[in-house]
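Hello Y.,

Per our agreement to keep a running log of every chain we model this quarter, I'm adding this entry. I've kept the format consistent with earlier entries: sequence first, then predicted structure.
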Amino acid sequence: MPRASGPLAAALARRTVLLDGGLSNQLADQGCDLSGGLWTGRVLAEHPAQVEAAHTAYARAGAEVLITAGYQVGYEAFARRGYDRAATTALLRRSVTLAARAAEAADHEVWVAASVGPYGALLADGSEYRGRYGLGVRELTAFHRPRIEALLAAEPDVLALETIPDADEAEALLAVLAGTGVPAWLSYTVAEGRTRAGQDLAESFALAAALPEIIAVGVNCCAPADVLPALRAAASVTGKPLLAYPNDGSTWDAAHRIWRAPDTPEPWPTADWQRAGARLIGGCCRIGPAWIAGLRSST
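Predicted structure for the entry above:
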């Protein structure tokens, strides 16, 4: 079956669409080595077939959107490891191609979302969970623009501006998108009712309210308990479809580079998220194909 024949925005106007789960945990389960600062970008560069296999696993589980492996691919980080600009551009485009192959092989319609991770992800020090990098909107715009341009050349269905911890970075990303006509979603990572950088959520979501390129707003890479308050904040100021793809409730220990699981698993009140306006629902870190298959039957 070919990739999805219609725009994702049109589907969101009708129904809930199922996202995939965490790419890193699926690659690890497939035996891939994610050590080093390039994380999933290393597998994309060295073992692309493994990335395609991970996408395929999620498509078989019922995912209708596959998020690419470009999250931690950036020119500066890869240059420090010997990749010139042309090679890094090729990797960004490869990330879209691999997801597209898995989408085309699926037995249902699947959209490809090109991951645009935050600046902090390329630092590989947990900065995406803090924000406040010491860079202004102008510098962040300059950082993100070439990555987005490279991804768009590969023709994904949508851009996933994801795990954004800071409203300043969201403003930079929106500046790159403005006037392009390219569909994208904006997803903050949040904690205790604020962005990871500590900003008011309603004000942060309001940045995207008037931009037609943004087809959905919401949260990812956060605790399940943080989802509903954030969705309500987003709904109060944007009027756009919402999205939610949290973690399993674990927290990232950047110093030891491990996830620390909660003593008690957190519930996923997906029906409440849908009532709040969520139309894209899936999982992030530590959420695998089996979990997505379960969501398929409950959303």
